[in-house]
Design brief:
The complex is a heterodimer of chains A (464) and B (102). With 464 residues, chain A is of the alpha/beta class. Chain A has helices spanning 6-11, 13-21, 37-44, 48-57, 69-78, 101-114, 127-139, 158-169, 183-194, 204-225, 240-251, 286-294, 320-334, 344-353, 376-385, 420-435, 442-451, 456-463; strands at 65-67, 86-90, 119-123, 142-150, 173-178, 197-198, 231-235, 257-263, 314-318, 361-364, 389-393, 403-407. Chain A contains 18 helices and twelve strands. In chain A, the strands form three sheets. In chain A, strands 1-2-10-7-8-9 form a six-stranded mixed sheet, with helices on both faces. Chain A has a four-stranded parallel sheet with strand order 5-4-3-6, with helices on both faces. In chain A, strands 11-12 form a two-stranded parallel sheet. Chain B has helices at 27-30, 85-101, and strands at 8-16, 34-42, 54-58, 64-72. In chain B, strand 3 (54-58) and strand 4 (64-72) form a beta hairpin. The chains are: A alpha/beta (464), B alpha+beta (102). At the A-B interface, helix 5, strand 4, helix 8, strand 5 and helix 9 of A face strand 2 and helix 2 of B. Strand 5 (173-178) of chain A pairs antiparallel with strand 2 of chain B.
Chain lengths: 464, 102
């Protein structure tokens, strides 16, 4: 009988991981802080052409571009200069499963099947669950989704309950847990018990799956507008969306600025049972965005293929109330019910467009499906029932966990830059602490320069 | 109550007791156990089963799991929520602002 105590299972982590992903990560290690990221991506992932084929077989990708002319007009109306960039969205809700996550899932499930696994498991409360369930159904594999779903009173956010329903509708077994990071422990037990494939969000093939999103944006804009977009705005959580999209843009020769956006949930502890239902966003928020940017290897694989600081040019924060406002504006002005969580980057785009000129282009690179529970009305009424005050005012006064402040006027939706220099320094310091070193070799300094999109001098200075 | 083999139910089990939680979790989370819910088909006929009794199920992937019977034939009860007047106000506001432009 296996020892399934918390300590014993966590001690078997590397062995379980290796068996469940089929990648020997140790061959990419250099012995120091660094590892060969590009070699890992090219040897274990798939090429862009291969992914186009894999996704094409299951009708993932090739989603339409929609110009949001009325949202752009509203941005120009409130802009101080009267000017604003044209705002477009890539309607990723059209994918099977209802989100861009289908791109990651298509590659992971294809890979699992190719390697002969009978089923796939993933840990997610978000859209990725429905995406994996959808792909597993299509390719005939069994599927288990592990969700952090309820607080200790068995109260769950309507958005997560809807994702449970969607996963079950597509034939997945859904395991629901109360709040806590020990979800990972349960995840390991299930991998060991079933021998299924770990369809992690953070494997090289999962991330490579998002590259087609960047590549499609580059080619769609070249063909319809004769140029690449000036800015691609990406909702940022674990970093896979940013990393994959940016890599696809680069591979297609697009020099668009890559800008991340997250909902500001500062002050809320993500592992708190009592705070769990006091937030209205389960992803795309700073509770994932900042920890994953500044320590990507916290994920459920030994080396995370999602490394956002390599690609981000700017990182913008928006407020919960602003995203709900824009979600309503999207349906009222454009006739599109999408989100809400996927509209985080749309909200940032609305504010950012006002810093730009009329001829410039911003692409919001995702939308997500809307359904019962997964809509701003049930989410706001759930928040209100949980004692969160919902009011009109200045969004800057919003206190995560206590209030949701809807802007009194859309002119109050603002660009707030999160200091990427601070995030980069924080990542470098985390490397020092987690590896227990006080200085870096030349090889590690070069690696960290690539990791942070800086130079060796910046890395050395951060250390000082 | 009588529950036939193959009835769709939801069960609950305790993964970690309050005292066994991971060291890094905050105090409020440490004070409660880590609970797990899963659904499956009962593996045998029961003639005298009550909510709160231990029952074994087979899940849709074919796993066997045992736990406390929580709900028989569980449905989905999330919905579209209550009326939120603020959303009407936003809809009206953005449309009026745009009318001035057009």
């Amino acid at each position: 009988m296996k020892d399934n105590s918390y300590a014993a299972v966590m001690a078997r982590k590397n062995e379980i991981m290796k068996k469940s992903i089929g990648i020997d990560y140790s061959v990419y290690e250099s012995g120091g802080i660094g590892f060969d990221y590009e070699k890992m991506m090219s040897e274990t992932g798939y090429s862009l052409d291969e992914i186009v084929k894999i996704q094409g077989e299951v009708t993932v990708g090739e989603t339409p571009i929609i110009e949001l002319k009325n949202i752009t007009a509203l941005a120009r109306k409130v802009s101080k200069t009267g000017r604003a960039a044209r705002i477009f969205v890539k309607d990723e809700a059209c994918n099977p499963g209802g989100s861009f996550k289908a791109r990651r899932a298509a590659c992971a499930v294809y890979h699992a099947k190719k390697l002969g696994y009978k089923g796939v498991i993933t840990a997610t409360s978000g859209n990725y669950g429905a995406a994996v369930a959808s792909q597993a159904a299509k390719l005939g594999l069994k599927c288990i989704i592990v969700q952090e779903c309820f607080d200790g009173r068995k109260v769950g956010q309507p958005e997560i309950l809807e994702k449970q329903r969607a996963c079950e509708a597509m034939g997945a077994e859904v395991i629901q847990l109360s709040v806590g990071p020990e979800l990972f422990y349960m995840f390991l037990i299930l991998l060991e018990e079933t021998g299924y494939f770990n369809a992690s969000l953070y494997t090289p093939f999962g991330i490579a799956g998002v590259e087609t999103l960047g590549a499609e944006i580059a080619s769609q804009f070249m063909s319809r507008e004769g140029k690449h977009p000036d800015v691609v705005l990406i909702t940022h959580a674990g970093g896979g969306n940013v990393t994959g999209t940016a890599r696809g843009l680069i591979k297609s020769g697009a020099k668009s600025q890559v800008i991340g956006a997250s909902v500001d949930l500062s002050g809320l502890h993500m592992a708190s049972d009592t705070a769990f239902n006091r937030k209205s966003f389960t992803t795309g928020h700073t509770g994932f965005g900042i920890p994953f940017a500044t320590w990507p290897d916290r994920s459920d694989v030994p080396r995370n293929a999602a490394r956002s600081l390599r690609y981000l040019d700017r990182y913008l924060l928006v407020k919960q109330g602003e995203v709900f406002y824009m979600t309503e504006a999207l349906s009222a002005l454009e006739g599109l019910e999408r989100g809400p969580a996927g509209n985080t980057s749309l909200t940032a785009a609305f504010a950012l467009a006002q810093e730009m000129d009329d001829g410039q282009i911003i692409v919001v690179q995702e939308t997500e499906y809307t359904g019962a529970g997964k809509h701003h009305m049930p989410q706001l009424s759930f928040a209100r029932a949980n004692g969160i005050s919902i009011l009109f005012g200045d969004p800057n006064t919003e206190v995560p966990g206590a209030s949701i402040v809807l802007p009194s006027c859309p002119s109050q939706i603002k660009v707030r830059d999160y200091d990427l220099g601070k995030a980069r320094k924080s990542y470098i310091k985390n490397c020092m602490n987690n590896y227990g070193v006080t200085e870096f070799s030349d090889a590690d300094a070069s690696f960290l320069a690539e990791e942070t999109k800086t130079d060796v001098a910046f890395v050395r200075e951060a250390l000082a | 109550m009588t529950i036939a083999k193959g009835t769709w139910v939801q069960i609950r089990s305790t993964v970690l007791e309050a005292g066994e939680r991971a060291p890094q979790v905050p105090e409020d989370t440490k004070a409660v156990p880590l609970l797990l819910w899963v659904k499956g088909y009962t593996t045998m006929d029961h003639t005298d089963l009550a909510i709160g009794d231990v029952v074994e199920v087979e899940t849709v992937t074919g796993r066997k799991a045992a736990g406390i019977l929580e709900e028989i034939e569980p449905g989905y009860h999330h919905g579209w929520g209550s009326y939120v007047p603020e959303l009407d106000a936003i809809r009206k506001q953005v449309r009026e602002m745009l009318e001035e432009v057009v």
